[in-house]
């Protein structure tokens, strides 16, 4: 494998103690007590389209979460003079949720100008997320790049998402620049991490560049290697326009704005363009380069990445992966890319049905910016009209709902997450004829009766865990408890182990990651990929209140865990459901068999309070009348559950 990997040979680590003014391509020197690097000013270029193809580089930064991607992006922006030193950190993390959580959740693009050997180069940088739930952002970003910077923390070493991102870049045949970051930390051990890269990816430790993005050490070497090692894009400027729409955002005044990579030809202001998906014509109103703020230009040419505004008013008109071309020309569409399939589903409902339209508009605009989210209409007797949304993971769900609140002022109700199960029904003349003998269910209310089911299948994943060896026993016990089957276990070095397990997705989506971090004191990392469906014994855990089925509270579980989860559910409901005038029996059943039961006692009026003595038969008579009244009421009364009860149960 090592012979085929495009690993770059780096210049030796340069000591930044000399004066930056002595560098031939340094135009402005900059020093501070913490950072020692030079800012290269950009020479004014009236027309970016004049930059030749051979002086364009498109690249991404990929790494595990919290390994310093955004900090490295800041240094690249400062060193190229795109932004001024001392500005706010994490410039490309523009969302409020990113700054609050300290993670990147949305890939951001920036065009940099860098002077090298007397020539101006255009470097298109895409900063990508590091968490597995946002791997779709990484996949889309790599589709328009020719190379990547593989960033690894010199302190933490190789993590699970580092492995996943490396192979994602390798499969896309991209040039890989391995870089070790945070060499300034007290506990940093670049030699140990270099050996990990050698063991896992067959990267020669002598070819790895060592930097500190925080202090600016070695950043100039990174830029030089981007220019000398990453190839220019293979495009044709003399051909007809073909542009890939790989990201989108919404502006309340300009409508849907498309971030495009121009594969062939050019696009200018006033051009009439057509999208291949919906065949609609648009007039180009604005063209911009992101630096990282918008810089208006009159023309974009092949090899460049830019933002197009064309009066696309409806968010539904923009399709990620679509091909844009001139309206007067017929072309073959670009291959695009395959979007990730949602793995976790949750119901989203407005707090009040009067907010339904506002929430719908917010979801439409946000899904334009996050194409990995799937949307289906859904209705609940308890919560009213809403949607069933699909996400790539639990963090993806949390970030999406947080953005709904922060960016659009919505107040949604989010039900407990679930996954999609595959069910094969017993063959009948009807379902065999129309091919409906296989169905997919992510809502317990749609789970068919057991007598109609022939087989049930649940989604499986391959989970990759990187952990210090002292936590190995506890982590293996956790995986076995979650019905995991070990695939492999290999030593990365003398202290770290990489494990692979086949795990059911339903056992992972809720709290697996949090539990893993707890038992490993935060040192273990986790990544997963979907592997399809596997036959499994799944059943519907139904919740009954006095014998009446409540579908909104039901769940789909594995048969071996039905009793345990049933006990937890009824115990929780006993505390949440308010007491009423009648006795309430809360039962969890599977195929009519009761797995667990709790009783909610009714309110009781003291009918004997007025008695002050006398014959005991009077007391017994009053109590008997009360018992008869309670029995009659229980026969005719409907248990009324307030809406807040459903919200409390479904959200937990």
Features of this protein?
globular, disordered N terminus, alpha+beta, 652 residues, Elongation Factor Tu (Ef-tu), domain 3, Rossmann fold, 8-stranded antiparallel sheet, Alpha-Beta Plaits, 5 domains
State the distance separating the first and last CA atoms: 47 Å
Our estimate of the beta-strand percent is 25-35%
- Reported by name, the CATH topology of the largest domain is Rossmann fold
Low-confidence stretches: 1-46
Question: Average pLDDT across residues?
Answer: 80
CATH class descriptor name of the largest domain: Alpha Beta
Oligomer: single chain
CATH architecture classification of the largest domain: 3-Layer(aba) Sandwich
- Order of neighbouring strands in the sheet with most strands: 13-12-18-9-10-17-14-15
Rg from alpha-carbon coordinates: 30 Å
CATH superfamily of the largest domain: P-loop containing nucleotide triphosphate hydrolases
Shape estimate: globular
Number of helical regions: 14
Total count of domains: 5
Sketch the major β-sheet.
Answer: 8 strands, antiparallel
Number of strands: 33
Structural class: alpha+beta
Helical content, roughly? 10-25%
Subcellular location: Mitochondrion inner membrane
Function: Promotes mitochondrial protein synthesis. May act as a fidelity factor of the translation reaction, by catalyzing a one-codon backward translocation of tRNAs on improperly translocated ribosomes. Binds to mitochondrial ribosomes in a GTP-dependent manner.
Keywords: GTP-binding, Hydrolase, Membrane, Mitochondrion, Mitochondrion inner membrane, Nucleotide-binding, Protein biosynthesis
Pfam families: EFG_C, GTP_EFTU, LepA_C
């Amino acid at each position: 494998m090592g012979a085929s990997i495009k690993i770059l040979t780096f210049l030796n680590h340069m000591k930044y103690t000399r004066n930056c003014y002595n560098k031939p391509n340094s135009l402005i020197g900059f020093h501070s007590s913490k950072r020692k690097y030079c800012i290269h000013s950009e020479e004014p270029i009236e027309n970016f389209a004049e930059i030749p193809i051979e002086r364009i580089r498109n690249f991404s930064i990929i790494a595990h979460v919290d390994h310093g991607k955004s900090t490295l992006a800041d240094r690249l922006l400062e060193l190229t003079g795109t932004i001024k030193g001392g500005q706010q950190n994490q410039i490309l993390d523009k969302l409020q949720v990113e700054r609050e959580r300290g993670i990147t959740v949305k890939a951001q693009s920036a065009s940099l100008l860098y002077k090298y050997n007397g020539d101006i180069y255009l470097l298109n940088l895409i900063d990508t997320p590091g968490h597995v739930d946002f791997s779709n952002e990484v996949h889309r970003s790599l589709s328009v790049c020719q190379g990547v910077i593989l960033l690894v923390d010199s302190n933490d070493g190789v993590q699970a998402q580092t492995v996943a991102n490396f192979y994602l870049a390798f499969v896309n045949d991209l040039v890989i620049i391995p870089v070790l970051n945070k060499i300034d930390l007290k506990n940093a051990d670049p030699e140990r991490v270099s050996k990990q890269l050698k063991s896992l990816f067959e990267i020669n430790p002598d070819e790895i560049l060592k930097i500190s993005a925080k202090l600016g050490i070695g950043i100039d070497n990174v830029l030089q290697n981007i220019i000398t090692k990453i190839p220019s894009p293979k495009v044709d400027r003399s051909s007809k326009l073909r542009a890939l729409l790989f990201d989108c955002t919404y502006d309340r005044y300009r409508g849907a704005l498309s971030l495009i990579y121009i594969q062939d030809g050019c696009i200018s202001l006033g051009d009439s363009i057509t999208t291949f998906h919906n065949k609609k014509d648009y007039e180009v109103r604005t063209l911009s380069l992101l630096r990282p703020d918008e810089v208006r230009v009159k023309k974009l040419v092949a090899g460049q990445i830019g933002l197009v505004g064309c009066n696309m008013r409806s968010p539904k008109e923009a399709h990620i992966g679509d091909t844009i071309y001139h309206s007067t020309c017929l072309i073959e569409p670009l291959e695009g890319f395959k979007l990730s399939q949602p793995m976790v589903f949750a119901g989203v409902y407005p707090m009040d049905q009067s907010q339904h339209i506002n929430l719908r508009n917010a979801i439409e605009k946000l899904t334009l910016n996050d194409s990995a989210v799937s949307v289906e209409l859904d209705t609940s007797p308890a919560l009213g009209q809403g949607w069933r949304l699909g996400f790539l993971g639990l963090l993806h769900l949390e970030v999406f709902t947080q953005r709904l609140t922060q960016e659009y002022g919505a107040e949604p109700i989010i039900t407990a997450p679930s996954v999609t199960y595959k069910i094969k029904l017993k063959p009948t003349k009807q379902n065999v004829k129309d091919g409906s003998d296989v169905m997919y269910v992510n809502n317990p209310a749609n789970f068919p009766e057991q007598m109609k089911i022939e087989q049930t299948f649940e989604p499986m994943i391959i989970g990759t865990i990187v952990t210090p060896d002292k936590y190995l026993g506890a982590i293996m016990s956790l995986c076995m408890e979650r019905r995991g089957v070990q695939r492999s276990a290999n030593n990365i070095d003398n202290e770290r182990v990489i494990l692979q397990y086949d795990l059911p997705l339903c056992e992972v989506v809720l709290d697996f990651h949090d539990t893993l971090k707890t038992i490993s004191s935060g040192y273990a990392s986790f990544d997963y990929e979907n592997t399809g469906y596997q036959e499994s014994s799944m059943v519907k855990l139904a919740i009954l209140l006095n014998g009446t089925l409540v579908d909104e509270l039901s769940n789909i579980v594995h048969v071996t865990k039905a009793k345990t989860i049933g006990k937890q559910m009824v115990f929780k409901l006993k505390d949440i459901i308010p007491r009423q005038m009648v006795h309430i029996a809360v039962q969890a059943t599977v195929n009519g068999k009761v797995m667990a039961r709790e009783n909610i006692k009714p309110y009781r009026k003291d009918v004997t309070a007025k008695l002050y003595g006398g014959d005991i038969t009077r007391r017994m008579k009053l109590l008997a009348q009360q018992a008869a009244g309670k029995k009659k009421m229980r026969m005719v009364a409907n248990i009324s559950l307030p809406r807040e009860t459903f919200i409390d149960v479904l959200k937990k």
